[in-house]
Design a protein that fits this description.
The structure holds 2 protein chains of 2 kinds.
Chain A (H helix, E strand, L loop, with lengths): L1 H11 L2 H19 L5 H12 L4 H26 L8 H12 L3 H34 L4 H12 L11 H14 L3 E2 L6 E2 L13 H19 L21 H23 L5 H15 L2 H4 L7 H17 L1 H7 L5 H12 L8 H4 L1 H31 L5 H20 L2 H19 L5 H23 L6 H4 L1 H27 L9
Antiparallel strand pairs in A: 1-2
Chain B lengths: L1 H23 L7 E6 L6 H15 L5 E6 L6 H9 L7 E6 L1 H7 L11 E16 L7 H10 L5 E4 L6 H12 L8 E4 L3 H9 L5 E5 H9 L3 E6 L24 E8 L5 H14 L3 H10 L2 E6 H22 L4
Parallel strand pairs in B: 1-2, 1-3, 5-6, 5-7
Antiparallel strand pairs in B: 3-9, 4-7, 4-8, 4-9, 4-10
Helix pairs in contact in B: 2-10
Classes of the chains: A mainly alpha, B alpha/beta.
Chain lengths: 507, 326
């Protein structure tokens, strides 16, 4: 293996490949920053370039673009509440409130540090154990994924503070309902399409995120009624970039935990960065003290660091099934698989025997890439954050422009634009009634996967519910989910018994 | 300066001349092709259209290729667009595949291939039935006998919705072997890769997928292919038996081909079909085809139309039997 690492170092650190990493990270960061353009678009743009260069350089370039886009993706989530990729939705939960409080600079810096740590720690895991981890990739079956998604949904508890329990639950259900629109996978039947062929493929994540978060936010700012959840639009003051020693101390364990969690969730081909970020967010909140818990969703540093670390770690983790089994766990890695096969390279158990230079150089390039990204991002933060200083008239128009264009560029379907307008209006109404949009998007993202895994489990077990306890992994995760849901209740009851004071714990 | 303007003048004259010759042959000018792709970037349709355009350009058979993605309605959006704007689509070829037949049968979209001008079917991917390397199944007969004993015990994974090609291929294979296709336990996954992960993690015993996807995994030793649905053995997998040679008359191909707007003159349709036929012999196209694991299955013009009519009958019967059609 040490030979492999040396070979990887030699290939990845060649002048040419270093240039490709830097170029890839640069392009990825910028594309990722634009709301609506995610890693898939970024990588698809790179494919024609990769045809002309050798496989290692091509993969290094694409990997650079990939984590660059994830790195940059957090920017639009934090600054304008417009998560362009499902994996950065959880980042907006606490990142945007921080920006609203005038700490945009700190939030962006923390996101950069967290991404760097997550990516680097995951790359170390990858280097040590990638071939062995292929078994982990295949250890999860549909019932286990179902349980994992149920656990992910419990993150919704974070938004049920300040007595909003019922409202959050309603929004989660609304999100779950929206995810059922389109052709049902398990039966092939159309649901809630109203005979519209444009609804056959369901509603895209991007459309929901852009209309319900970014568009409604921008439109509300015109009306002058600010975001009801946070009580402020992003302050033009970006604040200091520096984290205090105490803050670093507070966030460090979060980053450690989230890296490990994110990496292992990323290794599972049916999970990925999105689930990883929600799970990490939920985990941090559950581990936090009762007083800390209240900060989640309102600008907690831990709440920002956890999903940012986890989604980057998961991206590195997703290279395990791609490189060792030839199985893409996400749309992005599927595009990369296509590119690898175009080179005549078959990822799989034989990759690091047949093409060791590709295998190891990609992994080594991840370290380089993460360092490059940190150096690209940190000096840029003041300039990026300053975009909030733009006059409101201009900023609002820019947000409208980018969110509409972003959705249109993916589908090239004008119907989507109308749908966006409709959803933005619904979202404005709901926001004025003090409903939070976050549970909705959580329900929407997890809903489709939740249902498909449930339906698959049911078919696999011939309609029996035994799948819930048949496999130890499923049972364990289910128990954790139940515990997470019941804990606040138990502590509330305890608190009530001990003293007649109002309960601190919520949900 | 003078030399430059001289060159410019020569260039202009050349352009005028070429436009004159072009207008003389206007009816069969096929030097520009606009590809309409009914799905998003990165999918199978996208790869086929861009691969074809790329090969046509590289082999100098056309001068200019452009591409347009238009997703929505399982391809229905693009079909409606082709018909509505037919007058403008003089150089447009829309890529499509087996689903155009399936989805017009189920009524997902109101049009069928008859509302367009089928130009040529170019490539195909045959169905493959795959097991893990350590599976107890070593040939297709064992699968069939287990299926007949208890269909619930033989679950098939597939990379797409119920009623899609992966499902239909498996149902057809089971039906021809004398089993009841309605009792087939088909487990639907979001994508081919996830279905493969389902097979490898032991969720299902079998996987119904395209040969191109299965072949690379079989080469690396992770899975074995029990049978394929082509008529004859395929050069890329000479050791894999066909169902036909086992005595089951199952021929199933997920073909891909090109369609033109209804207003395109027949001469031009023929010229484009011939061009795509000639492309088959170029090394540029062969390289792209082999790289993607596609198999040559060329039907041009009238032949393609006939092929589509046959497909409609075969698939329609099967879907009726499965209960997808009434």
């Amino acid at each position: 293996m040490s030979e492999g690492i040396l070979l990887g170092l030699e290939t990845a650190l060649s002048m040419q490949n270093l240039m490709f990493v830097i170029f890839g990270c640069f392009v990825g960061t910028f594309i990722g920053m634009l709301p609506g353009l995610g890693p898939i678009t970024a990588i698809a743009l790179m494919i024609p370039i990769t045809y002309g260069i050798d496989p290692s350089s091509g993969m290094i370039l694409m990997a650079g673009v990939y984590y660059g886009a994830i790195f940059g993706g957090s920017t639009s989530s934090i600054l304008i509440n417009a998560p362009g990729v499902a994996g950065t939705v959880a980042t907006s939960f606490d990142g945007y409130p921080l920006a609203c409080k005038g700490q945009a600079g700190k939030a962006l810096a923390l996101a950069a540090y967290a991404s760097f740590s997550g990516g680097t720690i995951a790359a170390i895991f990858l280097l040590i154990a990638a071939p062995a981890l292929s078994k982990v990739s295949l250890s999860f079956q549909s019932p286990d994924y179902f349980a994992l998604l149920v656990l992910g949904l419990t993150a919704v508890a974070a938004f049920s503070s300040k007595g909003n329990f019922l409202k959050s639950l309603m929004m989660t259900l609304f999100g779950l309902m929206l995810s059922t629109v389109g052709t049902d996978q398990a039966s092939g039947i159309e649901r809630f399409t109203f005979g519209q062929i444009d609804l056959l493929d369901g509603i895209s994540f991007l459309l929901i995120a852009m209309s319900m978060f970014a568009l409604s936010e921008a439109l509300l700012s015109i009306v002058g009624k600010n975001d009801t959840n946070n009580g402020a639009t992003p302050s033009s003051n970006m604040g200091s970039l520096k984290l205090t020693k105490q803050e670093i101390k507070q966030v460090a364990p979060t980053v450690g935990r989230s890296s490990i969690l994110g990496f292992f969730v990323g290794v599972l081909p049916g999970a990925g960065a999105t689930i990883a970020s929600f799970l990490a967010y939920g985990l941090e909140r559950n581990l936090a003290s009762a007083k800390e818990k209240l900060k989640f969703g309102k600008g907690s540093l831990r709440g920002l660091a956890a999903p940012e670390t986890a989604n980057n770690a998961a991206c590195s983790g997703s290279f395990v099934p791609l490189l060792t089994l030839g199985i893409p766990g996400s749309g992005t890695t599927a595009v990369m698989l296509g590119a690898l096969m175009a080179y005549g390279i078959q990822p799989g158990p034989r990759l690091f025997i047949d093409n060791p230079e590709v295998f190891w150089s990609v992994i080594v390039s991840m370290y380089v890439g993460n360092i490059v990204l940190l150096f690209i991002n940190l000096p840029l933060i003041p300039y990026i954050a300053r975009s909030l200083n733009l006059p409101k008239q201009l900023l609002t128009v820019l947000i409208l422009f980018f969110s509409l264009i972003g959705v249109y560029l993916v589908s090239f379907n004008a119907f989507d634009i109308f749908m966006m307008a409709g959803f933005a209006i619904i979202a404005i109404g709901l926001r004025l009634l003090n409903f939070s949009m976050s549970p909705l998007i959580l329900g929407f993202i997890l809903g489709g996967m939740l249902e498909n895994n449930l339906r698959r489990s049911m078919s696999l077990y011939d309609g029996e519910l035994t799948f819930l306890w048949d496999r130890p992994i499923t049972l364990t995760i289910m128990c954790i989910a139940a515990l997470v849901l019941l804990m606040p209740l138990i502590s509330t009851l305890k608190g009530n018994k001990q003293q007649a004071q109002p309960a601190v714990a919520e949900s | 300066m003078k030399i430059k303007s001289l060159f410019a003048a020569i260039g202009m004259t050349a352009m005028t001349l070429s436009s004159i010759t072009a207008s003389a042959n206007e009816k069969i000018d096929t030097s520009n092709i606009h590809f309409l792709i009914p799905g998003g970037p990165g999918g199978g349709w996208d790869g086929t259209a861009r691969g074809t355009g790329d090969a046509l350009l590289k082999s100098k058979m056309i001068e200019h290729a452009s591409f347009q993605n238009m997703s929505g309605g399982g391809g229905g959006k693009a079909i409606a667009y082709m018909i509505e704007t037919a007058a403008k689509q003089t150089d447009t070829l829309m890529v499509n595949s087996t689903p155009i037949v399936i989805r017009s049968l189920t009524g997902v979209f109101p049009q069928s291939f008859r509302d367009l001008k089928p130009v040529a079917g170019t490539i195909a991917d045959f169905g493959a039935f795959v097991v893990r390397s350590d599976s107890k199944y070593t040939d297709w007969e064992q699968v069939i006998s287990d299926f007949k004993a208890n269909p619930r015990k033989v679950k098939f994974a597939g990379g797409s919705t119920r009623g899609s090609t992966d499902h239909l291929a498996a149902a057809l294979a089971v039906k021809i072997a004398g089993g009841n296709p309605r009792r087939l336990a088909y487990i639907a996954y979001d994508a081919g890769g996830k279905a493969m992960a389902g097979l490898l993690s032991g969720e299902t015993a079998l996987l119904s997928t395209g040969l191109s996807e299965a072949i690379t995994m079989a080469d690396s030793g992770e899975v074995r292919i029990l049978a394929i649905t082509s008529e004859k053995r395929v050069a890329a997998a000479p050791n894999v038996p066909t169902l036909v040679e086992m005595g089951y008359d199952v021929k199933f191909a997920n073909w891909r081909g090109f369609f033109a707007a209804p207003s395109m003159p027949d001469v031009k349709v023929k010229a484009l079909a011939d061009k795509l036929g000639a492309l088959n012999k170029t090394t540029e196209w062969q390289a792209i085809r082999d790289r993607n694991g596609w198999v040559d299955l060329y039907h041009g013009d009238r032949q393609f139309y006939k092929f589509l009519e046959e497909q409609e009958v075969v698939l329609g019967d099967l879907m009726r039997e499965l209960g997808f059609l009434k």
